[in-house]
Amino acid sequence: MDKLLITGGQPLAGDIRISGAKNAALPIMAATLLASGRSTIGNVPHLRDVTTMMELLGHVGADLVLDESLRIQIDASNVVGIVAPYDLVKTMRASIVVLGPLLARFGRAIVSLPGGCAIGSRPVNLHLQGLAAMGAEIHVENGYIHATAPRLRGADLMLDLVTVTGTENLMMAATLADGVTTIRNAAREPEVVDLADFLNAMGARVEGAGTDTIHIEGVPELHGAEYRILPDRIETGTYLVAVAMTGGEVRLKDTDPDLLGAVLAKLTEAGAQIETGSDWIRVCMTRGRPHPVDIHTSPYPGFPTDMQAQFTALNCIAEGSATITEAVFENRFMHVSELERMGARVKLEGNTAITSGVARLTGAPLMATDLRASASLVLAALVADGESTIDRIYHIDRGYETIEEKLSQLGARIRRVSH
Ligand code: EPU
């Protein structure tokens, strides 16, 4: 199993390229199941989760080719399978996004229930309630969701909670339903908009994505399309926090500052200087330790839960105290006990973490627990005195493309070792 070896203390400097967004690529790849014909998807990040989605699409019978421009071509014309097996779903909860497309196109789907994970119980009841309201018969047997609907029908859906993949699943299912579907209290995340744009390129009629009310007029069939995935705002945010912690000056290319409003505001509050262009962000941190920043996570356009762990790490070395409230997931503070092993001072009270910044963290052997928690450990290790080793980095490989190469390019002392 690979580990990351990091020696802290280097300021970061230089340019790096931001990859395509994992959380847009996964549902967009799943959406290709809605049509027969070939889709070509560009800017797909090279990540373990993307490989898992490719395996899943291959498992149901889609043809996948990586072309010479590193775009993924997916042809779902010959799909015969309707089963998403436990072995794949357990390694990636986002596999649930094949449920809507399979059911809408084939009238049946059998998808393993994802179960809980390191950040909470993460039920999919809202996905299932929405599909049931569209006429699907659903039951759970032996850990699998069995959904049947010869043809889904449009419905007026009011989601009890804002759910990203729930909105995506229902939006995809509705593209082939009979009549109009309205999704209220829909997620407004940029990745939902990216999916809607791809669906429209496939011939769907989706309006209102990016607002809390999405209308979808069902069509009899969709066709393949060519599309380019939007930049990864969480990868972008993670590197920005890295610089705010280590000091230095870095330019991130091929990103989109408009997707990061809440994150850029907090970085500025922390003392970083931010400059933006249409597809780049420059971050410069010249003051010593960052100012502490209070964080309250919420659905987009609020502060993203996927950036909470990284800002917790930043607050651990800030000059003063801060309060971080995690309001999206119930159990997303697994990084805290590892940060404490590096000398951080954090008090956990329910879904709130109160940090008292310290002048220095010390390197330690660390264990990654989930994707964003692992990212926060990398950031802490970059500023800590001495060497840290981070174990179980397959979590990082799920969501950060070649993190050690990108950070080395900026001057960090980081390398991957196998043992
Ligand atoms: N929820 C329910 N019932 C449902 C669905 C969600 O109670 O049927 C609850 C969840 O338990 C959670 C809240 O609603 O408390 C929001 O969860 P959501 O459904 O929005 O999360 P998700 O769709 O499973 C996506 C991202 C996550 C990101 C969240 C929140 C993908 C593939 N995953 O998950 O990304 O944290 O939205 O923004 O898009 C990551 O990339 O590290 C990651 C975890």
Would you kindly provide a written description of the structure presented here, covering whatever features stand out?
The chain has 419 residues and is α/β, with parallel strands linked by helices. It has 14 helices and 24 strands. The protein has helices spanning 22-31, 48-60, 86-89, 99-106, 125-133, 164-175, 190-201, 233-246, 261-269, 308-316, 334-341, 371-383, 394-397, 403-409, and strands at residues 2-7, 12-17, 38-42, 63-66, 72-75, 83-84, 108-112, 137-141, 144-148, 156-158, 180-184, 205-207, 213-217, 226-228, 248-253, 273-276, 280-285, 295-296, 321-325, 345-349, 352-356, 365-367, 387-391, 413-418. The strands form 6 sheets. Strands 22-23-1-24 form a 4-stranded mixed beta sheet, with helices on one face. Helix 4 (99-106) runs parallel beside helix 6 (164-175) and helix 6 runs parallel beside helix 7. It starts with a strand and ends with a strand.
